[in-house]
Amino acid sequence: MTTGHHELEAAGHPRSFEVAAPDGLGTGSGTRTAPVIVLFHGYLGAAGKILQTTGLDRLGPAHGVVIVAPQGIGEPTSWHIGDDSFGDTEFTDAVLALVRASPCVDTTAIWLAGFSAGSAWTGVYGCTHADGIAGLLMHSGLPPAICPGDRTPNVMIVHGTADPVVPFTGGAQPVGGSAVVLAPVPESAASWATTAGCGADPTVRSVGDQVSITTWSGCAGGRTVSLQAVTDLGHSWSGGRDAPGLLNPGCVLVETLTGAADPVAACS
Prior knowledge:
By secondary structure, this protein is α/β, with parallel strands linked by helices. The longest helix is centred in the middle third of the chain and has 14 residues, at 88-101. The protein is 25% helix and 29% strand. Helix 4 (117-128) links the parallel strand 5 and strand 6 (135-139). The chain has one domain (4-25, 32-164, 171-267): Rossmann fold.
């Protein structure tokens, strides 16, 4: 995987994605392989912008993690859940096929991550294509728990309590030409944990004055489900360019993938 702009065709549409890779990946005689985060932008978003907004364009390569950011299409640009005419499933399939074909990639450590509409796409695509996906990071756009219980990947949920676009308290949310009623985020996160077969009693950890992390462990396959609730955060990536000073879940995921003993402390 090489840093820069890449193009392909999927379902008859020209598509593209951006890559931010560690320097020297794939060179030399070593056998080092890198974890990968596939990062989906939100409604009206762009691949290059989400890389910069989250800080993952720097965080990933600096820690030996490849970041792949697919570009949505349509007017406006988005991910089209329930609408096959844009070929988003085929496009995501194609990007992942290229990722997995790279000899530089650790195919056991591929996560999907997304913000807003990209978060919803992360959950929907990741649950319907769970094989080979190590985890899902869903920020500010949590779909219902639809993964197969015994194959739910690791799950990191992040949401601001003051989000005016996808309210923390739930409610009707437009999806395509219709609307779905979303449960309050804490209730929905608990349902993800129940579906994944996690233990009933989660642990709760505070990080500063605004961040509370609820973690369910003992899930099927030894996986975990967590909710990072951020007090007073609106519809922005926590700890990113638009909400600095908060715990950045992108950093936590990078530190997790590179084996940090306490990823949260490493990013605090």
